[in-house]
Specification:
The protein has 4 helices and 4 strands. It has 154 residues and is α+β, with helices and mostly antiparallel strands. The chain has a 4-stranded antiparallel β-sheet with strand order 1-2-3-4.
Amino acid sequence: MTLLEIILSLAILGGTMVAAGEMARHAFQNAQEARDMVQAELLAESILAKVRLGIIEMTPVFEIPVGLATTNQLDIVQDTHAVSSGNAADALWLYSLEVVEIDGAHDLDGNELGYLVEIAVTVRRNLPAERRPIVCRLVRWVALDPVVEEEEWL
């Protein structure tokens, strides 16, 4: 083998190693993103269930740290960074809650439902926008009887 053949084979080997390293890095990033998406969905479902049960008050809020707002035994994932420091900037996950009342709703048979409430929970990773944080938004429509007090249906 000549020196030229050795240099050429090392260049091919180096290029192959770089390509394999890039593929591994992309696979790792995709796995992290999938993990965060599942965690965001679980947190959003948990918060929505707590709102429906009355554990969390059904009032609009914007970017509340998950651990600070819901520090009880029912948390799926408690944001220990925010709870231990007491600082919202240290939170890993933030949630927002939107509540929109829709008057005059009817079912498919034309019967009046009272009114509907649209409850939207948005959970996002607490990262700057340039890092493309994971965001999950869940919306549920709940039919309320106007005669029943809010505390009774929750």
